[in-house]
Write a structure and sequence with these properties.
With 222 residues, this protein is of the alpha/beta class. It contains 9 helices and 5 strands.
Length: 222
């Protein structure tokens, strides 16, 4: 029985909230079943639909894993010499693989590659995986569109990201928005509160969006 492990992220670009990595392990029959249920790239689905499908995915697949990276961890990687977001994502992907890869004869791993340099990133990833002997690893662009297992992972990742943002909305109000830099609500929230909530750990302070908002507020207080 061939098993496929699809891996994808959510929340790579936002200035507020965590980045999520999800992995879904399934066989070919489950892939076919999920395709019939309407599983596809999470960007093509509404949040409500993602939530419904997320529960169905968890019921049908062999197993899944979620890894969360908070803003403070993201900033650390971007502010430490020699590391970057691609390196952090390699760590997160490897953590998922290492958690799942126990007792299986063979797993085909398909990852939606976060880097433009696929081979270089794939080589980096392999240095972080504990056991490669039973793995066939494929890093691809648009894997979330082309592989059901990766589509399923993208749905789980997006749902967890939304759950985390909902927790922040409950604490800071709906005006926090989606956390993405392109969101007008998030932009206004930053302009008002980048300094006030500076120490709360919700902002990615390595992002230019936060730096600009914080600098602007500091200038106003001078």
């Amino acid at each position: 029985m061939e098993l496929i492990l699809g891996i994808d992220d959510a929340g790579r670009g936002p200035v507020i909230g965590p980045m999520i990595m999800a992995g879904c392990l399934m066989d070919k029959n489950t892939e076919s079943k999920l395709k019939k249920l309407g599983i596809k790239d999470s960007k093509q689905l509404t949040q409500k639909r993602r939530e419904i499908l997320s529960e169905k995915i968890k019921e049908e697949i062999e197993t899944f894993e979620i890894v969360l990276s908070k803003p403070i961890e993201i900033d650390y990687h971007l502010n430490t010499e020699g590391t970057n977001l691609n390196n952090l994502e390699a760590n997160m992907v490897a953590e998922i693989i290492n958690r799942i890869n126990k007792g299986y004869t063979k797993i085909r791993v398909v990852i939606d590659c976060p880097s433009t340099g696929i081979k270089k990133w794939n080589d980096l990833l392999k240095t972080k995986i504990k056991n490669l002997s039973n793995l066939e690893i494929s890093c691809e662009h648009k894997a979330d569109e082309n592989h059901i297992a990766v589509s399923a992972a993208s749905i789980l990742a997006k749902c967890v990201r939304e759950e985390e943002m909902q927790k922040l909305r409950e604490k800071y109000g709906d005006e926090i928005g989606s956390g993405y830099t392109s969101d007008p609500s998030t932009q206004q929230f930053l302009k008002k509160h980048a300094k006030k909530y500076n120490d709360d750990g919700i902002f990615r302070k390595s992002w230019a969006t936060w730096k600009n908002a914080n600098n602007s507020l500091n200038q106003k207080t001078l």
